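Kindly inspect both lines:
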Amino acid sequence: MPGAAVARAAEGAAAETPKSFTITDPRIRESSGLAASRAHPGVYWTHNDSDDGPYVYAVDSRTGRTVATVTLAGIDPRDVEGISIGPDGNVYVGDIGDNYGGRWQEVWIYRFPEPKKLADTTVTPVRHTVRYDDGPRDAESLMVHPRTGRVYIVSKKQSGKSALYAGPEKLSASGVNTFRRVADIDVWATDGAFSPDGTRLVVRSYFDAREYRWRDGRPEEVGRPGVPLQRQGESVTFAPDGRTLMYGSEGRRSSVQPVGLDGDLLPDSVAKAPDDARNGGGASSDGKSGDGTDEGDRNRNLAVGAGTFAVATLLVVSLRRLFRRK
């Protein structure tokens, strides 16, 4: 069963504490999505967000080097913004960005099996056409639930609130897949991810993140995990251990940084660690970082300063994205 396989994979990965790493591949200049491999421990899949071509990269977190490049045959991507791996063993790539705030009537999701061997390869993905039930919108967050296989998208906040959209129970490759709004998400969302057991959903912005308990297909907010100060925070995924979030950023030689979780932020399948064993700059259910590490203290202090220039940074990022695109 997919659920049992997820649990076994999480148990096997729990022995390794995730560490930060730097993406060294000069081709990866705008890493905009991140997904922990199910088939290859320590490997993370990523992609550029635009003007790169139909490429997905497998990066070894132990070295920061690209160990495989997958070329998507027959695909001319417009603005790839999210990546996730489903319980079917497929990689889902979201060509869902819209820097014009909702101009594109349709966006796409590309699906292909995660390679069993890490080597450069070309695949012909299945292409799924997507529309929203309330009209076009910009989005950067694509998540596949690790138990049900249902695909979700979080729109990017421009005015009012972001929103969570649920795809059909099973995506169609021949018709249009209508994603329906199911909940508000109060985050300027740049990425999101489900925990390995599917009981938690995290959504991040450039400087903030919210975590939700997943219950009956709906999110219930439980707190704010810690977020490292990054140049342009674009991506997030759960490490296979379920105890750690991995945060990524854009830019050449961008870093991927771990932040530990505790309290209600821990997925249900992860045993609660004793208070004296918590570390790693995590966050408790009230949104405060876990204690005991210099890194956690630095992140808390830097977060205060980050708030003073967050608005200006968002404006610069938005203008840069607008003018660099066709």
Q: What stands out?
A: The first strand starts at residue 21 and ends at 22.
